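Hello,

Following up on my earlier ticket. Below are the three sequence lines again, exactly as submitted.
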Amino acid sequence: MRSDKTLYGVYADDDLLLGAVARMRREGITIDEVYAPFPIHGLDKALGLPETRLAVTAFLYGLLGLGFAIWMTWYMMVYDWPQDIGGKPSFTWGENMPAFVPILFELTVFFSAHLMVVTFLVRNAMYPGARAANPHPATTDDRFVMEISVRDADKPKVIALLKETGAVAIHLKHPEA
Amino acid sequence: MSSHYESPYREPLVLGDKTYRQISADIVKSVAGPAARSWWIAFGISLALSLWGLGCILYTIGTGIGVWGLNKTIGWAWDITNFVWWVGIGHAGTLISAVLLLFRQKWRMSINRSAEAMTIFAVMQAALFPIIHMGRPWLAYWVFPIPNNFGSLWVNFNSPLLWDVFAISTYFSVSLVFWYMGLIPDFAMIRDKVTRPALRKIYAVLSFGWTGRAKHWQRFEELSLVLAGLATPLVFSVHTIVSFDFSTSVVKGWHSTIFPPYFVAGAIFSGFAMVQTLLSVVRKVLRLEDYITRLHIDYMNRVILLTGGIVAVAYITEFFIAWYSGSPFEDYTYLSWGAATGPYWWAFWSLISCNILIPQLLWIRSIRRNFVWTFVISIVINIGMWFERFTIIVVDLSKGYLPASWSMFSPTFVDIGVFLGTIGFFFVLFLLYSKNFPVIAQAELKTILKSSGENYKKRRDTDAQR
Amino acid sequence: MASAKKYWKGFGDLTSDPDSEAIETREFPTAIPIDPFLNGDGKAYDAQASRRDFLKWAGFSTAAATLAACEGPVVNAIPYVVKPDELNPGVADYYASTVYDGHDFSSVLVKTREGRPIKLQPNTSSGHYAYPNTRVQASLLSLYDIDCLKEPLIAGRAATWAQVDKRVRRDLDAATAAGQKIVLLTAPVISPTFSLLWKQFKQKYPSAEWVAYNPISNSGAVAAYQAVYGQTALPGYDFTKADVIVSVAADFLGDWFGGDHSRDYALRRNPNQAMSRHFQLESNLSLTGANADYRIPIKPSEQAQAVAQMYRAIAWGQQTRDPRIRAAIEALKKAGPAGLLVSGTNDGDVQLLVDAVNRKLRSRAYRPEAPVYLKAVTDAPVKGLISDMKDGRVGVLLSHRVNPVYDAPDSSAFVAALKNVKTFVSFDRRRDETASLAHVNAISHHAMERWGDAKPKIGIYTLQQPTIRPLFQSRQMEDSLIAWMGGVLEGVDAALANDSTATYIPPVTECKLTFHDLLKKNWTENILKGDSTWFSALRAGYYERRDELHPVSPADIDLSPALTRAENRYAKTGKIELQLYSEIGMGAGAQADNPWLQEFPDPLTRATWDNYLTISKVQADELGLKNWRDSKGALNGDRVNLSVKGRTVKNVPVLITAGQTYGSVGLAFGYGREKAGKTALINGNPIGVNAFQLYVDRDAIQTEVQIEKADGAHGFALTQLYDTMMGRGESIVKETTAQIYNRGKSDKSRYNPSEKLLTIDGKQPVSKVDMWAARDRSLGPWFNLSIDLNACTGCGACVVACHAENNVPVVGKDEVRRFRDMHWLRIDRYYASDMSYEKAEAEGRSEGRAFFRALEQPEENPEVVFQPVMCQHCNHAPCETVCPVAATSHGVQGQNQMIYNRCVGTRYCANNCPYKVRRFNWFRYAENDAFDFHMNNDLGRMVLNPDVVVRSRGVMEKCSMCIQMTQASILKAKREKRPLRDADLSTACATACATGALVFGDIDDENSEVHQLHDAEKNKRKYYLLEAVGTQPNVFYNLKVRNKIE
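Thanks for your patience. The regenerated structure is below:
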């Protein structure tokens, strides 16, 4: 049964919103999305959002960077064009490794950080000039908006709940409108 | 409201009767409104300086490094001094935003944005010097590990200079994205608040279409946390590697195992000093007195005291070891009797007084919390740290192993011009930033408004009385 | 005629053979096959080539063009189209010849590449004058001097040789008719064949007179020899026979009489054999004094007395009054026949006493029977000449290689007298102070262009042959004389005389008999006498006739008048005395326009581009004269006005020097030249002051000197700013005495302890301490350079040799002052200082600043040590590690290699070099008019060694261990399918070293000399510079041993 209407409950305070979210979910109402001007601690728990795996990817990217650094130092210093540089044992990677530690570290960080940011942008579908989809400009300022799509049957109940939980305004959006 | 509880004995970090909207308004005001007259004057001066510097750089590249005061014994002087100085200054930004984030220090929030901006601009100045100090800067790309047109001749990964290449570029790019990611929600806020369509368009592009969805915020916080986790070792590694330029060499006075920690401490020392300098100005010019408070400068001054102490200990250690070694080769290292009484006595003593003696004033609470004093001392520290690098490089090089090749250095107008130019360029960038960017991480700040905002604290007190 | 200057592209140009002319006219030697694309009448249609062919060609040429575009700028190299048989491109040819410019004499091997002389090397096969000194080596540069005269002049305007000949002969005839003298004024000429020619010239012009003139006089010594042995010459010496050398101000390692004693002297300075003991009594610190075991500072005026006392003591056995010289006299007495007394004074009486002393000792080292003719002229004729000129008795004056207007003390008189000379003909290539006054400039050849011979000492004959065609329209002086004697065919002469546009035809084609023919004839008939052939003599460059050596019988003359004269010579002396001297670099100043010599640092003061008044510290303090360093470390000094007998030289810079006797000052000849050329001027003013102005009565010792402080300061360009080792002696210059050395030969820990480092398992010698496993270096050669601090006299021949071999740029005084000289090889000079912390404490100077000041201050009369320092080619090179682009790395033969075109110029390597031997190209030094030292014009660049790249701006450079030479030897050995021999291997510096202080070779080759030296067991003196740094150099030193008694 597809929802044909979307309700926006606008809150003026993050704590009220947090309470409202909890209440709604207790009442069995699914909240589609919440827009907030700043990160609200515990909101993702309240909404029951799954843990993000960004950190895991960062770790993997780091490993990638480390591996690349090892390969690069080995290929350039030891394999492709070995030279006697200051009498250093530059003909075996292992013995010469201490000299490569800074490179290894920096490339690990480099890969990890940048690739993670790229992932972040991709997953959020963010890019320069992307269209902003927040329902109301104030959601980046001081308003907290809860987006719920409802069937006509549930509408009054939801509106009542919104009012109850301290929404300062309620908007109804028709799909065609 | 329990989640926001903070001891009433803690001073508020945000003064005045601030609401979420008020914060946004304060930020947008400076961005949307016309620039102040003082801003234009400052900008004009900085621009003139940077153009003069550009002229000197072009002259150097056109004629040869010979237009600097260097000689066969002293191959580096102002160029690398300035490089290390700028890199050092850069460190505070990352430290504030990353390390303090990990420690959940709320007070960072109103200053980290500017501190990071300072980092990025300072590192840009720093990165200039390794390039222009080359005899053949047009071949600078040879320091990157790319196959060259003479066959497969690669870079030398044993060289600290090459480590620098990787360290600086990583540090710069990571700081940049860290900074920018933090800016995105604030750009979005401005986008949604400004009225001029042109501005709106610009900030729409800059904000990457940020909407503030709950999931995005979740990812955003994770991202900030991990980036902070990465940036923290990075910031320590960078100056460690810079110090390797010296400590892995065989030059007396350079070849010293305490350099890495000591350089990092020195970097934070000078970095916080520069933050103090900048913020003292910014808070006045942009009227951010409510956000950058006595508490903030107090905290930063404490960091300065700590790192300054580390530096002082390092100096004393160096001096002691130079004497204790009993080696005649140590007689003239940058911290030794030879330096203190030799031709560079003035550099030596200005280093000691600027970096050790004068900062001790900060033990006094009233001075530590006084904006004017802080401003003055921060300037002094910046000067002192420049002299530290100067003595390390020039004094140690000027009196090496063989007395037959001892010499001295005196700068030419080009040396000076290039340095002034970078200062000018730095301020050009910083002024542009302070005018057009959200100088305070408002999204973050809003999260602590209830706990550390003055009016909320008041309200809590009144509730308590009731 | 101005356009007649031409740079030959190949021998084809010169020998105008039809082929090369044809080639010049045609662009391509062979026609390019274009007909496939065009048919006969040059129309593209119905050509033989198909469209496909055309596309193929077009495609190829496009590809080729693209590829070409990838390359850097194209530099045109013009190949030999017709290669002369006698030379192979890329292969150097060597010609034995002789360089003699009237001042410096040497047998040389001229290294030529593609027909260009590019280096002068020792002619080691010759036992005499085999090693060219700094000046001789540098003289090559003036061959390619763009500023010298390129054609003969009459009254300053370009003329043809025909016109010159016509004019001069007319004047010669006129003079003869008028009964006036025809005077040839030359530097001392020692050419047997020229003497022959001169006889013939006198037949044609009986009134002709030949006057030899020596700017720095040996008159007294020559007179003394003449008096005793009845011949105009100087006595010979053999320093190898001397166990004890007592030198009274004789700078026999520098400029002294005939010279050429360094090698013999050094042979006896080897502590492993019987080492000679050397006493030096002098007032200026000379090169010789710096090498002495005992140096006794005396005032110039005391020299005569000193010799007199020695005479009294040795001839008459009297007691010596003067305690300072007693030791020297005792040593001489004890040595007897193995002793030698030499004196640098120009006082005939003193030289008579010296001769007597040596004969009394029966000194084996003193060899009057082997007279030296070099520089053996007396002053009398010159004095006569000037008066003759004044009274108009001279009709024609011919001058060759002399510059009296500059270097005659009474130059003004000479100039005045010159007005009464009808015709003044100069043969010199430069319009210097004298030549610029000439009516006719009949320019003569450079030494590289001319034929000639010489007889420097009895029984020694050397030949001089051209190694390049004359670059300009010069004609060697002898040929000019022949032409004027009427050697020229009348007909041709007349024709030329009428045709003023006629261009130069070299005398070779037109004379009945050239000097070359005469030379050949004279040698075959009178010199070789059938014992050898002309060509073998020419190949060798010299010929030795032992049969000319005869025992001499000294005339028995009463010496008591000489003795009294000598003792009263300087009865009345002023407070301060002046000793004039000549530097090893500039000498008498004939080559003041030579950039290599101007930039050559004086071995003792390390000063370039200057002469100055050397003065002792104490004296300077008394007179309130100061030296001080400016903010960039460069040294500045006060200036004084120096007056001698009414003559004053203004604004003489004062340089405080250790070793200068209190009560004396020194000033070097050879500077202050106004018309030497642009190099001798700095923004219009001559460099230095002209000491010849004070050379009153041609006496180098002036006892009545007034010094008054002048205002203004002078900026010196020193290449070394600190004189002492700052208490770091044991790791920089190790030294000991012969006593200790010989006693402790077995265990060297007593005089050559190896430096130890504290490791986890106790103290270990540095050589044992290593983080990494050493490479396997057994395969192929492994080059090392050994430097013997005992043999090194500091003469600096190696420095100039390195300059020439490696195209080292000259940077000029300002840049040297900025401490940016480019010498790859420098000779550090340290003055001993016995200052130590303990001593300082005793004197209460151990506190901070005072202590360091004390360390910096050399002693009043210091021991001196010379230490040649070039790249040490470390096996653990600090420079290699730090280069980000791997522009410097280690070679498989031990060299630390610098790859110029990979260098980006971070200068990190130079900072990290403990020896500070790396040099950075701060500017573009070649093809840059800001550095106007011959490298900014095509002609000047002809001196460049094509085997060594000219470094571009912004790159680091340094000693390469002459890898171009070693590689050439290796290739040669390969081509000849034989193993490398020790004799094949050398470097420019080792080749040039007269005393064998520098030994280069392969340590993997058991029978190489350097292998023996490298073996620490065999060679106890071996040590490394700054060994404790752990750089493991491939250059090692042999410690200094002084023959002293504790």
